[in-house]
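Internal tracking record. Fields below are filled automatically when a chain is submitted to the structure queue. Please do not edit lines marked as system-generated. If the sequence contains nonstandard residues, flag them in the REMARKS field before resubmitting.
Queue: standard
Priority: normal
Entity type: single polypeptide chain
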Amino acid sequence: MLILLVKGAMATLVLGVAGIAGGTALGVVLAALSFTRPWPLRSAYRLYVFLARGTPVLVLALLVFYGLAAMSIAVGPYVAGSIVLVIYASAFFAEVFRGGVLAIPAAQVESARSLGLPPLAFFRKIIAPIAFRYALPPYVNVCVMIIKASSVLSIISVWELTLAAREIIERTLDVFTVLGTAAALYFLMCFAVDRLGRRTERDLMRRGFMPERA
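SYSTEM-GENERATED OUTPUT FOLLOWS
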């Protein structure tokens, strides 16, 4: 029983990492769109975020899995599940990154502009590092949320921790032990992500790169 649950937890972790990595990359692009001048791009950003955040992960999983199949795009459940997590995570990450940029004091931005850096260098060397410091705590919270959201992917036959637990329960009828162990594994994964985020935050504070918590 424990071996199957651990294998399911590993699959959950891989899916979570894929969703976080892809969602982070797409979230950066989306956050950049929110600050562009053309209003159609800003409107597309708001629409994407509204739809992705407002759609339950369960519904999104069914839409992606069966929608791709209806368009004759053959993808397995794991690929479809990763796409679902990337779409869902990117909407939250985009808002986190946008909030990090907006949290930068205006005086600090103006002082940085006085350096006369090109736009790309200005963003890469000034805006992005400062925004990251402000965005780190909510970013970690979203990472934890994505790992837990992966449990919904069992609805499209992704064999992860939740589906592994269900299969074991069907064989053994030992509901409390199996679900208790699965819950403990979810807790360990989320706790590890939270500790890693807090450790990074403390390291930045010690180096003076991040303000102390109130």
